[in-house]
């Protein structure tokens, strides 16, 4: 592994510390290196607060500050060049006198899009772009999808039995749904919720299961709770918002700046996205429990790459719709 890859890996690990609090800003990590020694590092901890580069520069000890004039700054995402909630990081780098910057990938945000790199180069900084680019883009896939496809990143999630059913047939609407997740996998579901800004079920699931759709078994904020379909005001729980169709839903979320949507609805709701090709990631939790009959699990088009892992006694299959 090349030296620059090692330091960029460190940037990525630092960036992950902002997963729960940085959105809708991207997760970014930065490392300052002088003669193969890290003299400063930082990450973007929370939207509206200092960016990774600012925190990295601020972390440099007084004895090391003279070394900034001969150091290399590694950063997982292109430094910003505009005034937002904070001043432009590219300008700070120039003022600090750091002569070399290594960037993981360009920022797709329309107020950046290469402007930070151009500002640095115009100021005499040697800039290298594209180190571990795929990993850097992957870390911020919600952010990249929102700014390139102009819609939220959409994750489909369901649990199914070993014989391919998501629930048994329930003639009694008051009957409880079959529990396919165990205590450990339920924690993973809540972790997934904490990593998304909005969560969606269909009106059928809302009526039959009365789900809370919050984060109870993980640390993080509750996602915005949404329902797809026509729901009467007397049927809509407090804190939920209903949308009549997928197009209206996605337009509203985009206008609100919501970058990620987790779809936990039943097969009909999942199909509303699958049939339109409006999904980026799908996760199926396969339980060892068999039902014999019931509501069939959603099916994705054949030929889509998938990854299969074992987790807490359940099989997790993840598809990416690239």
UniProtKB/TrEMBL annotation:
The UniProt keyword set, sorted, is: Hydrolase, Metal-binding, Multifunctional enzyme, NADP, Oxidoreductase, Riboflavin biosynthesis, Zinc
Q: What does the cofactor field's note say?
A: Binds 1 zinc ion.
Signal peptide residues are none
A GO molecular function annotation here is: zinc ion binding
Name the residues that bind Zn(2+).
51, 80, 89
Q: Which Gene3D superfamilies match?
A: Cytidine Deaminase, domain 2, Dihydrofolate Reductase, subunit A
Q: Does the keyword S-adenosyl-L-methionine apply?
A: no
Instruction: Name the cofactor(s) required for activity, per the record.
Output: Zn(2+)
Q: Which pathway, metabolic or otherwise, does it act in?
A: Cofactor biosynthesis; riboflavin biosynthesis; 5-amino-6-(D-ribitylamino)uracil from GTP: step 3/4; Cofactor biosynthesis; riboflavin biosynthesis; 5-amino-6-(D-ribitylamino)uracil from GTP: step 2/4
Is Nucleotidyltransferase among this UniProt entry's keywords? no
Note the CDD domains from the entry: Riboflavin_deaminase-reductase
Q: What EC number(s) does this enzyme carry?
A: 1.1.1.193, 3.5.4.26
Q: Name one GO biological process term.
A: riboflavin biosynthetic process
A matching Pfam family = RibD_C
Instruction: Please give the InterPro entries that the UniProt record associates with this protein.
Output: APOBEC/CMP_deaminase_Zn-bd, CMP_dCMP_dom, Cytidine_deaminase-like, DHFR-like_dom_sf, Eubact_RibD, RibDG_C
Q: Where does substrate bind?
A: 193, 213, 216, 264
Give the positions the UniProt entry annotates as the active site: 53 (proton donor)
| Domain CMP/dCMP-type deaminase residue range list | 2-127
Family note: In the C-terminal section; belongs to the HTP reductase family.
Cited NCBIfam families: eubact_ribD
Its biological purpose is as follows: Converts 2,5-diamino-6-(ribosylamino)-4(3h)-pyrimidinone 5'-phosphate into 5-amino-6-(ribosylamino)-2,4(1h,3h)-pyrimidinedione 5'-phosphate.
Q: State the name under which the record lists this protein.
A: Riboflavin biosynthesis protein RibD
């Amino acid at each position: 592994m090349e030296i620059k890859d090692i330091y960029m890996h460190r940037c990525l690990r630092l960036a992950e510390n902002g997963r729960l609090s940085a959105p809708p800003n991207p997760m970014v990590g930065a490392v300052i290196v002088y003669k193969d020694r890290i003299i400063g590092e930082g990450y973007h901890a929370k939207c509206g607060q200092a960016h990774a580069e600012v925190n990295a520069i601020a972390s440099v000890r007084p004895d090391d500050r003279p070394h900034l004039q001969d150091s290399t700054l590694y950063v997982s995402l292109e430094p910003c060049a505009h005034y937002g909630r904070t001043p432009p990081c590219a300008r700070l780098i120039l003022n600090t006198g750091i002569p070399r910057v290594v960037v993981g990938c360009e920022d797709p945000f329309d107020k950046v899009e290469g402007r930070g790199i151009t500002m640095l180069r115009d100021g005499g900084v040697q800039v290298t772009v594209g180190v571990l680019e795929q990993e850097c883009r992957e870390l911020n896939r919600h952010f990249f999808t929102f700014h390139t496809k102009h819609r939220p990143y959409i994750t489909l999630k369901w649990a199914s039995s070993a014989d391919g059913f998501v629930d048994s047939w329930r003639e009694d609407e008051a009957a409880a749904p079959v529990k396919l997740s165990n205590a450990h996998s339920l924690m993973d579901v809540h972790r997934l919720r904490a990593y998304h800004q909005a969560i969606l079920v269909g009106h059928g699931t809302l009526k039959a299961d009365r789900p809370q759709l919050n984060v109870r078994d993980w640390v993080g904020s509750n996602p915005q709770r949404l329902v797809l379909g026509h729901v009467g005001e007397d049927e809509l729980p407090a804190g939920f918002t209903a949308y009549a169709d997928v197009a209206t839903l996605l337009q509203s979320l985009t206008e609100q700046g919501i970058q990620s949507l987790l779809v936990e609805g039943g097969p009909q709701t999942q199909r509303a996205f699958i049939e339109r090709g409006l999904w980026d990631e799908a996760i199926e939790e396969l339980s060892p429990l068999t039902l014999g009959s019931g509501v069939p699990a959603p099916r994705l088009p054949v030929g889509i790459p998938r990854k299969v892992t074992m987790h807490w006694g359940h099989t997790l299959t993840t598809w990416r719709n690239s």
